[in-house]
Amino acid sequence: MTRLPITKTPKVYVGGAFIRSESGRTFPLKAASGEFIGHIPQCTRKDLRNAVEAAAKAGPGWAKRTAYNRGQILYRLAEMIEARTGELTSALMAGGTPKAAAAREVAASVDRLVHYAGWTDKYEQVLGTVNPVAAPYFNFTVTEPMGVVGLLAPDEAPLLALVSLFAPVITCGNTVVAHASEAQPLPAVVLGEMLATSDLPGGVVNLLTGFRKELVPTFATHAHLRAVAGVASAADRKTIETGAADSVKRVRLLPAEAPVDWFEHAQQGLYAIRDFVEFKTTWHPVGA
Amino acid sequence: MSVSTKKSPNQRRSRPELIFGDLWAFDPAPETADPKLKSRYDLFINGRFVAPKKAAYFTSINPGNEQPLAEIALAGAADVDDAYQAAARAFPAWSKLPGAERGKYLYRLARLLQDRAREFAVAETLDGGKPIKEARDFDVPMAAAHFFYHAGWADKLAYAFPGAKVAPHGVVGQVIPWNFPLLMLAWKIAPALAAGNTVVLKPAETTSITALKFAEILQEAGLPPGVVNIVAGAGGTGAAVVAHPLAAKVAFTGSTAVGKSIMRSLAGSGKKLTLELGGKAANIVFDDAPLDQAVEGIVNGIFFNQGHVCCAGSRLLVQEGIADAVLTRLKLRVRQLRVGDPLDKNTDIGAINSKAQLDKIRTLVAAGVKEGADLFQPACSLPPKGWYFRPTLFSGVQQSHRIAREEIFGPVLSILTFRTVDEAVEKANNTAYGLSAGVWTDKGSRILKMSTELKAGVVWANTYNKFDPASPFGGYKESGFGREGGKQGLADYVKLS
Question: Do A131 and B497 touch (CB under 8 A)?
């Protein structure tokens, strides 16, 4: 007799816990082969607001971690993903990615996290400055995290793009509420389990699944989201940029019409981090 | 004065009052340099002064005496389009010019402005109302310094952005405010040109003259036609500048309300945007602060440029134990401020920039009185003509008062108190704005703690209202995004790949 396998109920990772949507709504996900995979939480605006609250609560603690500590945690996340490459590869394959490409995407995601793990205690040394003002003042500019950042992950490279979007944001001490690819939410669901076991404090990265059009208006107008980034259609960009004006939110959206190659080295680096910091300049007189 | 305990050296007895200003009249000391004004200023497009297509002009008024100064061309949409076409034509050659050569043009602009500094200072004071000592010692030299600083970046962009390919955006549309007309022009144009962009700039309606005088300097410098175009006008012209399809990037300095409307109007356009908007800065004085210096800093923080300063220290947070002592000293100091003719070299507080702004200040001050705050104004005399407002202190202000929440943009200080460091941080950050803040304390670790906790782009510790081309300036939250000055400011004028 063959053993009936235990299937895993898909849950999303919010506030350090695995939740279904507060609404109880789900949508069925089928593999590219047509095989039923599971019921994915169809997160609501309320779930989004809860996630923002969790991210806001986690923010000050995460920002106050030492840069060294943040680097070690990002590296630990890479370790956790590497160790579970098989499961993430299967999640990508379920969405139709061929096996070799899926494995390559997981490996690239791990490498991307390692890249940012190394940035945590260096970006400040490149972006910050001591400014030679023409008067007897010590004047210096440092970076600070913006706060809670909303991210919209694309359907292409649903794992690598998501990792590439949130890694620079948390590298510099922000916290994240990300909406996973609507078409391929499974890699994000699995990734949540690695986030949970990586020493990353709960609430630093929050992942939602569901229908983008239900969530975009709240991403646009939620005043506690200090920035929104990721990939969006022309209509969604307009909605978000219009709504962002109410609280002068920072918007860094890439056009969905011009897909990027997330495997490129250009998709990582210092300037992706810089997009999510504020610059603060302090003056003090020099004297006895 | 209600201090008698010996808890702190700052609570010592007040000194005798010496109010010289009330005892005898100062002789007038007007600055007499010739501002060399023309009776009429046309638009500056493609390297030439041109009349607006609809032949419309408006009058620029001297706020110090309400007399007309000059007629200014009003740019319509067609004129703005001409300016953009000229800027777009100029862009390929300008952006391909070796950085060192672009830099030389900027050095020339700095030098030519220094040559004509006094003339520009007088023009700035006549048109905007600011005291001549500020225009002469701050606005004009700082504007020249911005060109000089950014000139040097033009051939060093690769050093500013390691690991990236640097390119200009293209044509940049810039809209600037009336509080520092020439300086804001310099903050906008200098980094844009250094990075290889070309510019369409609109000065504020009430203060166009120094921008159009600066166009003369652009000609004197031999700047290629179209690299900088200046279109004067009001909100309609500004909207045309912001909306023009050839604008690759828009930079705006002004009110938060207009900044938000620009964000909405650009939504979905793909244009780059930076905003430097309003503020309601907390200037925080702890009980160990050097009080004489703090009082000077508070006065400079709120009365500099009549309080027409987005980063003005308009909310004074004083630790409770020294609140009476600080208020007493402030009242004494404010009574010695000289309010009047902006051209007079002894004037501390000049004219309010416009009748509309004066009305807004009066409305908010009336709201402060109505909401129960205690008003103090010195009994100084004001000139019979012109728009003036006495330096004003409000004590007993609550966080819910309009004068504690809304940007007044005038010489009006709202004074609140706090007890602990945490309360100071909480109150300072309790605003939608986040442009600047001040901290006064003798304790170094507390300065760094406050500087870390305050949600503001600029923190002045034991000083206030200091600026420098090398020092990035710009806000958090609803005070906008992007920086001006320094390497960080330059970044907003380049595309990295």
Answer: no
